[in-house]
Amino acid sequence: MQYKTEQGAQSEKAALDIRGLSLDYVMPDQNIHAVVDLNLVAKMGKITALVGESGSGKSTVALAVMGIQDKNAIISSGEIYLAGMDVLSIPKKDMRSYISNHAGIIFQDPIDSLNPLLTIGEQLMETILIHEKITKKQARAIALNQLLAVSLPQPEELMKKYPFMLSGGMCQRVMIAIASVFHPPLLIADEPTTALDVTVQAQILYQLDSMRKRDGTAILLITHDLGVVAEIADEVCIMKDGQIVERGTVDDIFYNPQNMYTRKLLAAAL
Ligand SMILES: Nc1ncnc2c1ncn2[C@@H]1O[C@H](COP(=O)(O)OP(=O)(O)OP(=O)(O)O)[C@@H](O)[C@H]1O
Ligand SMILES: [Mg+2]
């Protein structure tokens, strides 16, 4: 293989293995060190929570993994192994397709993430047809299945609707359906439930957990909500000022936090 593949046993089951990543935002008067020598692993079949205060760099990490960071972002060092391949070593022209075949992402505001001018069916079909050389009829069957898989009722009807006709929770499920249509090893969810009310939040988390169980997907869940973390996460990474200051299982982090900042974060959530 001509690109950089992973060495070392540690990440055999890691869908994502970020090593020593540093990323700066170049500004006219200064550079913002948004990510500093960051190491992070998301294992298959596990939910890894990335937690930290606003501005700590969580979304920056997510966007860098997806290769969609802002134009003024410069990655100065590090490797991002996605399904065993360092995406930063893949030439630009092949990088997008490699990433979209191995990772999906959903964002906080599902309605904004969907195209308002296309029906749900058109958007889902478009994603499927970009990935696979199949007929429209086959793509439609996959689309319908995928909507059922995220527990959306009456998928035939739903395919004809536009995003504004759906609730936020339904849009988020459509986003999960789109992001997971080819069962990528990694799904990143950046504050996926922040804009939704509590009962709908629970349904979305249930969908993510089902994906993890059903497909063995590694889920990187970015959230402020420590209640959600305690309930659903397997591993937790605490982020501060662009670095992971502590990592561990949910029990480690909640019952035996070592880092001062982790303790402060937990105390603030009580
Ligand atoms: N395009 C950009 N140009 C300059 N600075 C940026 C840019 N995008 C983000 N930043 C800065 O980088 C830092 C990390 O931002 P990021 O959005 O990754 O934080 P976050 O942890 O996701 O925060 P939140 O919890 O509010 O979503 C912040 O200081 C932010 O202001
Ligand atoms: Mg963010």
Automatic annotation (TrEMBL):
E.C. number(s) listed in UniProt: 7.2.2.11
GO molecular function: ABC-type nickel transporter activity; ATP binding; ATP hydrolysis activity; nickel cation binding
Pfam family, one: ABC_tran
GO cellular component, as recorded: plasma membrane
SUPFAM superfamilies xrefs: P-loop containing nucleoside triphosphate hydrolases
Major location category of this protein: membrane
Cell compartments where the protein resides: Cell membrane
Source taxon at top rank: Archaea
Keywords for the protein's UniProt record, in alphabetical order: ATP-binding, Cell inner membrane, Cell membrane, Ion transport, Membrane, Nickel, Nickel transport, Nucleotide-binding, Translocase, Transport
Listed InterPro entries: AAA+_ATPase, ABC_Ni/Peptide_Import, ABC_transporter-like_ATP-bd, ABC_transporter-like_CS, Nickel_NikD, P-loop_NTPase
UniProt topology in membrane: Peripheral membrane protein
Enzyme class name: translocase
UniProt key word Transport: yes
Reaction catalysed by this enzyme: Ni(2+)(out) + ATP + H2O = Ni(2+)(in) + ADP + phosphate + H(+)
Ion transport in keyword set: yes
Domain ABC transporter: 18-266
Assembly, per entry: The complex is composed of two ATP-binding proteins (NikD and NikE), two transmembrane proteins (NikB and NikC) and a solute-binding protein (NikA).
Protein name as annotated: Nickel import system ATP-binding protein NikD
Gene: nikD
